[in-house]
Amino acid sequence: MSNASQLLNASRYRRAAATCGTFAANAVSSADRALLMRMQRSWLDRARHQEWLDELPPTPPARRSALKVPRQP
User: Fold this and answer.
1) pTM for this prediction
2) Are the CB atoms for 59 and 10 separated by under 8 Å?
3) What's the maximum distance between 2 C-alpha atoms anywhere in the chain?
4) What does the pLDDT look like over 29-40, one tens digit per residue?
5) DSSP code string of the chain
């Protein structure tokens, strides 16, 4: 497998994680938000695992530039 396609797999998983994070930020219920955050962590774990399998250097963590999700009572 070429190095470019390996990077595509990991970046595809990271894009899916980002999408879950966006959905979680806009979720109405806390149960939906928790589920989407678990899905986001799962996609990020999968991306890190793919990088490990492909013996690629780990991607540095992204800076947190997003606003915190307000907690609903």
Assistant:
1) 0.69
2) yes
3) 49
4) 999 999 999 999
5) --HHHHHHHHHHHHHHHHHHHHHHHT-SSHHHHHHHHHHHHHHHHHHHHHHHHTTPPPPPPPP--SPPPPPP-
